[in-house]
Write a structure and sequence with these properties.
Layout: H1 20-31, H2 36-74, H3 79-86, H4 90-105
Helix pairs in contact: 2-3, 2-4, 3-4
Length: about 110
């Protein structure tokens, strides 16, 4: 521990570490008969699982955007129909439509 004099106590935690359910779960784990090593291993596993969850959610949103873009480009459905089919808001569809028309104006 040669670097303890330069270490700061203010480590930025990932956003998911601030969720209420996680704090409650960690409090319950404190009550369990776990060694510090077992608890650290479990916390690492939880953090890894949450990272995977966040990545999956981002992938899902990207696919959702792609589907909406393709339906807009077909030009057959209204924004309301596209929103209804994909279970998204009409504002979401309009935001994507605005982005597409902005790209078209810029020649991209």
């Amino acid at each position: 521990m040669k670097l303890t004099d330069t270490a700061t106590s203010e480590a930025k935690l990932p956003d998911f570490m601030k969720e209420d359910w996680l704090e409650e779960t960690l409090k319950e784990l404190d009550k369990a008969n776990m060694t510090p090593e077992q608890r650290a291993e479990l916390e690492i596993t939880i953090a890894g699982n949450m990272t995977k969850k966040v990545a999956m959610e981002e992938e899902w949103k990207a696919r959702e955007r792609k589907v909406v873009m393709k339906l807009i480009q077909l030009g057959v459905l209204t924004d309301e129909q596209i929103a209804d089919i994909n279970d998204v808001s009409v504002d979401f569809v309009r935001q994507i439509r605005t982005g597409l028309s902005g790209k078209a104006k810029n020649g991209k």
